[in-house]
Design a protein that fits this description.
The structure is a single chain. This protein has one helix at 3-11, and strands at residues 27-33, 37-44, 63-67, 73-79, 83-89, 92-95, 107-111. With 112 residues, it is mainly beta. The chain has a single domain (20-111), classed as Crystallins (Gamma-B Crystallin, domain 1, Sandwich). A 4-stranded antiparallel beta sheet has the order 2-1-3-6, with no helix packed on it. A 3-stranded antiparallel beta sheet has the order 5-4-7, with no helix packed on it. A hairpin with a 3-residue loop joins strand 4 (73-79) and strand 5.
């Protein structure tokens, strides 16, 4: 599509705008089971999810893999609406067992 058409579609909400440039390429993969097993919820950098229930993934987090863009962090919360205990991630890494967060994650927020 031509740039002007894409801009017009974005302005009326028919096409989602791209993630901010600072968030390009980052992600958090949230796994249902320990050791990265079971179903996975893939969350792109910059995409907050206020309630995992909407995604059919509430209270099922047992392990995570992540790559967080420089200057950002991603925070998992035990409750919806970014409340409850927080598990903060930055840089790149994984946690094969999120221990006290197991089956308790309900939202994720990206912080710059």
């Amino acid at each position: 599509m031509k740039k002007s058409l894409i801009a017009a579609l974005v302005s009326v909400g028919l096409v989602a705008a791209a993630a901010p440039a600072f968030a390009k390429g980052g992600y958090v993969n949230i796994y249902q089971d320990k050791s990265f097993g079971g179903q996975v919820l893939k969350v792109k950098a910059g995409k907050d999810i206020v309630d995992f229930l909407q995604m059919g993934f509430n209270d099922t987090c047992s392990s995570v893999k992540y790559s967080i863009p420089s200057g950002m962090s991603a925070v998992l919360y035990t409750d919806s609406n970014f409340k409850g205990r927080a598990y903060t991630m930055s840089g790149s890494g994984d946690a094969s067992d999120v221990e006290t967060f197991e089956d308790k994650c309900s939202s994720i927020q990206w912080i710059r």
